[in-house]
Amino acid sequence: MVREADGQLHANEYPHLHRLNPHTPTTPWCMRLADEHGTFRLLCFDFDAKADEPETAQDDCDALSTLLATHNVPHLICESSTSGGRHIWIAPRGGLSAIATAALATAARAHYRSLDHGMLLNAREGAARPPLSPHRNGSHSTVLRGTIDSLLDANAEPAALAAVTVALENAAPRAHTEQSGPSGPTNNHRPHRKLTSWGEAHMATVRGGSNPSWTGFMCLLAAATAGWSTRDIEHAARTAPGMEHYRTKNTGRGARRPRAAHEAAERLNRQWAKAQDIATFRQGLPPTTRIQDLSQLDSIITTTEALLQRLHASPGRWGRTEAAVSQRSVLLALTYLSMHTGKEIIGASIRDLALLAGIGRTTANTALKALTTDGWIETIRTADGPNAREFRLTPDFSTPSDKDRSQPFKNPRPPGQLFSNRTVILSKLTHLLTDGRHDVFTRAGHGHTAGRIYAELRDRPDPITVDGAAELLGVDRRTATTALSRLRHSRLVIKRGGGWIRSVRDLRDAAARKLGILGTLAARARRYSEEREVWAWWLAEYDTMTSSPRERPKRPHVSARPIFRDTGSGERNWPRYPRSADGRGNHREAREYVNAGYLNPDSRWQLGDVA
C-alpha cells in the first residue's frame, strides 16, 4: 500500500510491487494467489464483516469450514483484522486451475452472502493479505484455527476440493426462495400463523442449521411474504428453532452465547425491514417456471455478465444525467426479469418496470425508448390489449467464446455451475434494485444518484471517498459531493476514516417521513393498480360490445355490490361499464368507482356514495 500525502492509508489499494527480501514492507501488503500460468497456488475465501451484519461473516466462515472438514480439506482460518472479517486459506496440492477455482468460488458465493469471491475469479491480479500480515487500521491478521503448515505443505487434494464444489452446487440456495431447502435437520415445530411449506421448513430448522444467519433471514422473508406483522415475528424470534440467530450470537470461536435483549431486538428490526423490502419487490414478479433449456439459461447468464461488466466499465454513460440513471434502473429491471424467468424474451408492462425501478411510468417509457434507440434492448412484440410489450436484451455486446466457429457447439456450463451463477447474479440485482428503490430516493427526495451510492455501499467493506463515489458513478465531484451530503444529512451514511459507509441502522423511512414523502411509492403502486383495473374493465366491456347479443351475459350495475370475490380460474364477471349521456364509455366515472372500491367486495361496508 502507498501512504497518502498526510501519511495515512486511505485507499484500500496495493499499486507497488515488493520483491521478496529479508526486509518487510513498511505498509500493509498482499500476495497474488495464482502464478504466471493462471494456476491458483493458494485459495483465500474472504468473508467481509459489514458494519450492520458483522456476525454473518462468522456464521458463513464456520459453515464453509465445517464442509471443508467433512471432505478432509486442510485449511487455515484467520481473523483478517479487528473489524471481524474472516479468511479461510487453502493450499491445493499442485495448484488448482482457474476454471475449477471459479466454479468453487461461485458455488460458495451462492451459499454465503458475506463472501467476496472476486479475487478467486481473477487469475491475473487476484490477491489477498496473507496470515499474520498487518492491516491498514493498525491490527494484524490473526490465526484462529488451523496451522500455517497446512499452507506451507500444500496438502489439500484437488479431488477433495472438487467434491466440495459438487456438494455446494447440489445444496446451494436456489434463485427463488420457495425452492430453497433448510440448511439442517428440522423438527415438528409449527408456526402460530400460516406459512408456505418452504417457510415452515426454515422455521423448524433445528438451531438454525449449519448457517443460522442465513436461515434466520429466510424465516423473516417467508414471514414477510405471508404478511406477518412485527408482533408476529417477535413472537417467532422467541420460539421458532430456525430463528436461533436472533436469540444467540456467534462468539467467533465456534460457539454461541445468548444476546442481550436490546441487541436482539435491534438486529431483528433491522433485518425485518430488509425482508419486507424484498418481499414487496417480489410481489409483482411473474410466477416461477421450471427451466428446461439450459443452453438458453447459459446464454442469458453470459449476456447478463457482459452487461454488468459494461455498466461497470462505462459509469459515465449511466450517471451523468437523471435520464441516464433512470435508463440504467430500467435496464437492470429488465435484466432481473430475464434472469428470474429464465427466458430471453420477457413481457413487461411499463408500469411494472416503473415499480421495479422506483420511477414513474412516463420516465420508464422514455427510458425504454432511449435504450431501444441505443441498441441495448429490442422490442419483439408491441403491446396488444391485455398483453404487455415483449423485450429482449440485445446480445450484441456479449461475445461468446466460440464466435470463431462456423457452427458453434451448444455446450452450456454444467447445471450446478449455471444455477450457482444465476443465484449470485440475481442476489446482486435484487440488492441493487431494492436498496435504491425507496421513497427517500425519488425525485422529490434525495434523488436517484444518492440511491445509487446507497445501494453500491452494500458490497463495499471499505469507506468510499468523494472521489471514489464520483469515479464509481461516472459523475463529477460536485454531483458526488451533493449526493453524499444529502445522505449524511439524513444519517444514511456515517463518517469512517477518510470516507463514508452505510449507517448500521436503516433510517430511510425516517428520512422520507422528515421530507414528507413517506408512502410515495406505495401510493404510486395503488394508482397503477387502479389504472389496470379500469383498463381491464374497459377491455371486458369492449369484448361484450363486439359479441353477438345472444352471447352477452347479464351484468348488474356497478352499484349492485358483489358479496364475494370470484377466485376461480375462469374469466371474471364485470358489471356494466358506466356511460355518459351520449352513450359513450365514461372513463372518469369508471375510475371513480374503482378508486372508491366498488369493484372490491372486501370494502363493501366502508364505502360511501360516489360523488
UniProtKB/TrEMBL annotation:
- Composition-biased stretches, type Polar residues, lie in 178-188
Q: Which domain of life is it from?
A: Bacteria
Q: Where is this region: Disordered?
A: 172-193, 388-416, 548-587
| Protein name, entry field | MarR family protein
Native organism? Herbiconiux ginsengi
SUPFAM superfamilies given for it?
Winged helix' DNA-binding domain
